[in-house]
Amino acid sequence: MNSRIEKIRQLLSELDAETANTFRGDGGFSALELPDIIGEVVDDLQPILTAYDAAFYWFLFRHSIAKDGNPQIRVSRSTLRRAVVKSSYTNAAENNISFGKVQDTLRALEEIGAIQKLGEPNRQGTLYRVLIPDEIEACRKFRAERMAEETELFPLSNKSQHRTRMQVFERDGYKCTKCGKQLTRFTATTDYVKSPADGGDENPENLVTTCADCSSRRRR
Ligand SMILES: [Zn+2]
Question: If you measure from the C-alpha of residue 87 to the centroid of ligand 1, how many angstroms do you get, rounded to a whole number?
């Protein structure tokens, strides 16, 4: 009986390691993307969060994507209680936030889509995936509204081209239309439906979102 439980434990920890590796290869982020991602979080995610939500998001971000590019993090409620921010409701010397507040904040971030629970808690805490604004529908919506108003954020010459590309990415949900891979606005490229040689133009209707691999495969 005990040896069977031991075997199950071993299988579970192997599975856990495999999932972590899949993410590192597939959904991982490079250090080069970091400044842009941080800009996105401030521009497109933070304005739709409360102060507690934002503090928690940055804490989780710092210990996942900002640490080694891996969007996964296992974290316990007792760590979050002590390590993120002070409570704004008490004046006690050790004014940690309550377990209830930790739970509420995690739930709020999950509802917005900023984090995703990947499994049930164990002794080391719960495994979460931290998402970046490109992957969060609420952020993409907020960004589209913001861009419609603040066109002067982008230099004039690149403005219309930039907006066309963003429109195509938004429409396709930042997914490669060839292989279905989830992309970000830094890894996504566009491809023509009808090539310029055949009279295809630069309008969004003639463009689709692709990943770099599918786009170069086609050109070869
Ligand atoms: Zn692709």
Answer: 45
